[in-house]
Design goal:
alpha/beta; Aminopeptidase; 7 helices
Length: about 240
């Protein structure tokens, strides 16, 4: 990513810092200060481009997802990180839709045995109702061996923009937060219901392995979540301004 993309005008920095302070006070964020390299350059969009992002905190309600090595449940971490990502994207003037903003399943009203699929179908419907939106699904990874760590991204095979967005997110995170991360992005197949069927530009971000003691501790830390959220928001802005 060109160095100039990682710089913004001083006026924009001041505005973002003030706005973030307000959001931080409201949401109770602590331990992270916006610096010059945390966001990309000022949010400037082509007139015809949509500025809508769907942020999808995976799992929820009775579907807890994976359980971390320290007992934390994936659904909670997905939501915590997604809410921080939502706040940063709004600071960058994106219109953000959250598929959930509390501990709920979108399929909780369905009969037992059909709730998981109903949940996925409703998330897909949100994307279909906003066809020009980018879809970001936030998850945590788990593996039987604790050695595995690092963010990894799956991208939809239905729009080449998905692969390009995944590459930008990976490169941004690798540059700014996880310098040793060599994991490759992967094209989704039918085993990932949403990405396989979605026509939107869409990626699923596995933010790290909660089966790894060190990484689980990081992903449970509010300050680290904020840094990761900044990286993803920065990458989305880069994509919109230079690729998408």
């Amino acid at each position: 990513m060109p160095g100039k993309i990682k710089r913004k005008l001083l006026a924009e920095l001041v505005i973002f810092t003030v706005l973030f302070a307000v959001v931080a006070a409201f949401l109770g964020y602590t331990g992270f200060v916006i610096g010059q390299s945390d966001f990309a350059s000022a949010a400037v969009f082509d007139a015809g481009k949509t500025k809508r992002i769907i942020v999808d905190p995976g799992h929820g309600g009775e579907d807890g997802g994976a359980t971390g090595i320290n007992g934390r449940v994936e659904k909670e971490l997905n939501l915590e990180l997604s809410q921080k990502l939502e706040a940063f994207l709004r600071l960058l003037d994106f219109d953000v839709i959250m598929t959930r903003d509390s501990d709920v399943s979108l399929g909780e009203d369905a009969e037992k045995g059909k709730r998981k699929m109903t949940d996925l179908v409703k998330r897909l419907e949100i994307a279909e109702n906003n066809p020009d939106s980018v879809f970001l699904s936030i998850h945590m990874n788990k593996f039987p061996q604790e050695v595995c760590k690092g963010l990894q991204i799956w991208y939809s095979p239905n729009d080449d923009g998905s692969r390009r967005l995944a590459d930008i997110i990976k490169n941004t995170v690798q540059t700014d937060l996880q310098s040793g991360n060599t994991r490759e992005n992967k094209k989704a197949n039918s085993s990932i219901y949403l990405l396989d069927r979605m026509k939107n530009i869409s990626v699923l971000v596995e933010c790290g392995f909660i089966s790894n003691t060190e990484e689980c501790a990081q992903l449970c830390d509010s300050a680290y979540q904020q840094k990761l959220a900044v990286c993803i928001a920065d990458a989305v802005l880069d994509f919109y301004n230079n690729v998408g």
